[in-house]
Amino acid sequence: MDDKNISQAVIGRLPRYLRYLGELKDSNVERISSQELSELMHVTASQIRQDFNNFGGFGQQGYGYKVNYLYDEIAKILGLNKTHHLIIIGAGNLGQALANYMNFERRGFHFKGIFDANEALYGKKIRDMYVQPMDDLITFVKDNDIDIAVLTIPKASAVKVAEQLVGCGVKAFWNFAHVDLNVPKDIVVENVHLSDSLMKLSYNINIKQMENE
Ligand code: NAI
After folding, report:
1. Quick check: CB of 179 below 6 Å from ligand 1?
2. pLDDT in tens, 170-199
3. What is the model's pTM?
């Protein structure tokens, strides 16, 4: 797939399409038109067609999309047909919450281990994993084919820990620490800031209030 010119905005919308298609699949819906999908998802049919045209269309004109096929194709584009091995660095509130969320596994993301620098946490069981010391990190990453690290540690230590992980073969970071990581260009970083979403919410509350005044 040549996706070099596909905007991040389009990529950012694919998970939502996948969620809706997953629900349609679960309800045994076999076909859906862009108009029906548009009504269901509250986006315009033309937006849907434009998004899908980035990947060659998927649909037959006037015939609708085959739900199973479309679901599988979007999952493939998102790389969800592959399995990933993750570790979590930082077994605090956020790290534990992520470790306890089972649904990531359904998408092919397997949590293999959780690490922390605080020895009071060593041996604590979180779901089916024991919190491990940072001293065991390098060997564990190499032995378990870990490709993604989730960083749920304070920003003061995230940059250094990320460098260490790149050194032992980690290829991607799901970074919750509020700091930009200093990693080589071939390493993939997805920064997550829940507060960004909350600020967007705040903006939209403001807009609604202004409309009602
Ligand atoms: P927490 O204090 O409950 O957990 C942090 C854990 O990291 C602790 O267990 C601590 O021992 C461990 N840690 C500290 N330095 C370490 C190191 N060098 N190596 C390994 N482990 C280390 O904090 P919480 O609430 O879980 O948040 C974690 C981080 O995520 C914080 O920096 C917070 O600002 C950030 N955060 C980000 C959010 C986002 O949307 N991006 C949302 C919530 C928190």
Report:
1. no
2. 999 999 999 999 999 999 999 999 999 999
3. 0.90
Question: Which residues make beta-bridge pairs with 189?
Answer: 173
Name the residue with the closest Cα to ligand 1, atom 2. 92
Residue 167 CA, ligand 1 centroid: distance in Å? 22
Nearest ligand 1 atom to the CA of 90 is 7
How far apart CA 195 and CA 183 sit, in angstroms, is: 24
- What's the token pair of residue 147? 């490709």
Contact status, residue 162 vs residue 181, Cβ threshold 8 Å: yes
How far apart (Å, rounded) are the C-alpha atoms in residues 176 and 78?
21
161 lines ligand 1 (CB under 6 A): yes
What span, in angstroms and rounded, lies between the C-alpha atoms of 48 and 10? 10
Interatomic CA distance for residues 44 and 41, integer angstroms: 9
